[in-house]
């Protein structure tokens, strides 16, 4: 299990300063939520921390190592990202076998067949799915394959960018149950972006509320139901979520 | 009162497919907000696309499909071009996919407007900025000049909504219009759509898998499973649903202050599909 620490992360694109100065810490084995205004920079935090984008200032450490000091291979084996869109994140002409075997080949791992089967079974899919293509699977099955791809190199940390927002509630329930079980079994550390505070309450111990590139407040999951946020925007967001769910 | 839209016994079969993606769907829409919910692949978007006649190569059958005075089964495509995007519009599910990647967001909205409404470029630009502001885009001038890959998920969704509302349509079909938005912005956008129904008397079809959304923002809800409507409810009675499929969907939702245990997942039954095969 590895902790994640983000210190003074800042990035400017063109004339716009997208993140002025973001810092937060995630404990080893914790599920940490990122919520907040649309366009506030949640996906940008994950893109920077995973080195998908590399032109930023500050420091991101996983365990005792900076993500900048890791080579690509090491980084892939330390952290993986699951993207929001189960349709766009898989190549339409690649079979599940291709999707899963490529990272194994790149990293020169042996027992490929066994590892692929194990990754599929981890996400609750039979090994027959190795020969399927994206159009032969439902949205939820595709998202499970995307998670299997993230798992296959046995990383320590998973970044999840709205992993269920494109899915209906029944498939969402399957994926959330899966992510919760995997965290228990494998000791993953998660950072999870979501718009749904019910999902955050269900999955995360703590979460950060973002607005205009800044973290305005870090809260405990239990602060949601009683709306114990102190900062005005965080209060507004939680209040709106409670009204939306009609629990108040 | 005459319905704005009347659909009877709609069926859709995609080219090359043996199965009907949509079967026996009937509903009337007045000046109201009708929700369509159901799991992924149940046929929700297909119903929307059939109404806008956006299904080239698919077999579309119906006993009736009328929009105001127009018989949608019958009118030629050349007239449909004047109707689609003007008197009826559809806010599509995937904004990034629906926008032209090499044209600035604002220009796309302004140009779409000018294909239906006579206006100078300057006026179209002003109206676009106004609309971007109305959908709660913080810096409309900046966002006007961004390319689709430079906007966040939620901003792309609002760009699409702004584009569809520019021409004052009578019928709006919104396919997952707010799934990428945070709740405060989502409520704002829903209020805008709501205002259109109340003030201008438009008909709104809201396709969504968000049960809270349809409960709070629709008048009636169709619940679809495997291409068919399995239940129709007043939105406020959603929690009293009697169909096991609808009940299963409701139970699968995580809740604020819930017990955080594993969520119940749907056990699907073949008997939910009428006349299967
Ligand atoms: N390539 C780019 N060039 C310029 N600006 C960009 C680029 N990519 C993103 N941005 C800007 O960065 C800001 C943050 O975007 P980001 O995608 O991180 O938001 P987000 O919090 O994930 O929002 P959402 O919830 O809508 O997905 C937005 O204002 C967006 O316009
Ligand atoms: N172009 C197409 N060709 C063949 N089959 C299609 C096509 N588009 C959709 N389908 C199939 O038609 C069925 C209904 O799809 P539709 O997109 O209407 O579902 P939906 O209810 O909108 O799902 P979602 O919630 O995932 O958007 C699905 O089984 C889908 O695989
Ligand atoms: Mg995002
Ligand atoms: Mg759809």
UniProtKB/TrEMBL annotation, chain A:
Residues 4-237 form the ABC transporter domain. GO terms for molecular function: ATP binding; ATP hydrolysis activity. The keyword Aminoacyl-tRNA synthetase does not apply. It comes from the Bacteria. The keyword Transport applies. GO terms for biological process: transmembrane transport. Keywords: ATP-binding, Nucleotide-binding, Transport. Belongs to the ABC transporter superfamily. This is Peptide/nickel transport system ATP-binding protein. It comes from Allosediminivita pacifica.
TrEMBL record, chain B:
Pfam families: ABC_tran. Keywords: ATP-binding, Cell membrane, Membrane, Nucleotide-binding, Transport. The keyword Transport applies. The keyword Transport applies. It is found in: Cell inner membrane. SUPFAM superfamilies: P-loop containing nucleoside triphosphate hydrolases (SSF52540). PROSITE patterns: ABC_TRANSPORTER_2. It is a peripheral membrane protein. Its main location: membrane. Residues 5-251 form the ABC transporter domain. One of its GO terms (molecular function) is ATP binding. GO terms for cellular component: plasma membrane. InterPro entries: AAA+_ATPase, ABC_Ni/Peptide_Import, ABC_transporter-like_ATP-bd, P-loop_NTPase. Belongs to the ABC transporter superfamily. This is Peptide/nickel transport system ATP-binding protein. It comes from Allosediminivita pacifica. The lineage of its organism: Bacteria, Pseudomonadati, Pseudomonadota, Alphaproteobacteria, Rhodobacterales.
